[in-house]
Amino acid sequence: MAKILVIDDDVAITELMSVLLKTFGFETLTTNSGVEGVRLAVEAAPNVVLLDLMMPDLDGWQVCKEIRKANTVPILVLSAINDPRMVASVLDAGADDFLVKPVPSGVLVANINKLVRRTTGSLNMAVTNAKKKTAPLSQSSRTS
């Protein structure tokens, strides 16, 4: 099971992301502090970090730079800011990808799985198994 760290100063967002990601089979860690996020990125060894840009203690650019000093965990920035210069600057700061909020859940999960595959070489098995469980039974596998 892939572990996702969500760093966002908005408590409602971190709670929503935690519930959403758990429904897709991810383990989640959340924090509303950039400083705490950097610590968790190092100590908890997440597979992917979801990061907001606009935070009061350390902003997303600073968090990216600090995480990059310690490890290469994929960082996916989620922000309401849709300015190409801002996107370029956060990618230059160390982020791996950028999505503009609001993001459809399927797009978010697909991007997380892409980053997990890049680092582990496999899909999130919980998501893969959940899809198998919801697949319709074929005629030959049904019992009477």
Low-confidence stretches: 124-144
Q: Percent of residues in beta strands? A: 15-25%
Number of helices: 6
Cα end-to-end separation: 35 Å
CATH architecture: 3-Layer(aba) Sandwich
Structural class based on helices, strands and sheet pairing: alpha/beta
CATH class assignment: Alpha Beta
The biggest sheet amounts to: 5 strands, parallel
Tell the overall outline: globular
Briefly note the CATH topology name: Rossmann fold
The portion of residues assigned to helices is 40-55%
User: Average pLDDT, to the nearest integer?
Assistant: 87
Quick one: CATH superfamily? Response regulator
- Cα-atom Rg, whole angstroms? 17 Å
Q: What strand line-up does the widest sheet have?
A: 2-1-3-4-5
Number of domain modules: 1
Sequence of secondary-structure elements: EHEHEHEHEHH
Polypeptide structure, described:
It is built from six helices and five strands. The protein is α/β, with parallel strands linked by helices. It has one domain: Rossmann fold. It has a five-stranded parallel sheet with strand order 2-1-3-4-5, sandwiched between helices. α2 runs parallel beside α3. The longest helix is centred in the last third of the chain and has 16 residues. The protein is globular and about 30 Å long. The termini are far apart.
Q: Topology, pairings included?
A:
Elements: E1 3-7, H1 11-23, E2 27-31, H2 34-43, E3 48-51, H3 60-70, E4 75-79, H4 84-92, E5 97-100, H5 105-120, H6 125-134
Parallel strand pairs: 1-2, 1-3, 3-4, 4-5
Helix pairs in contact: 2-3
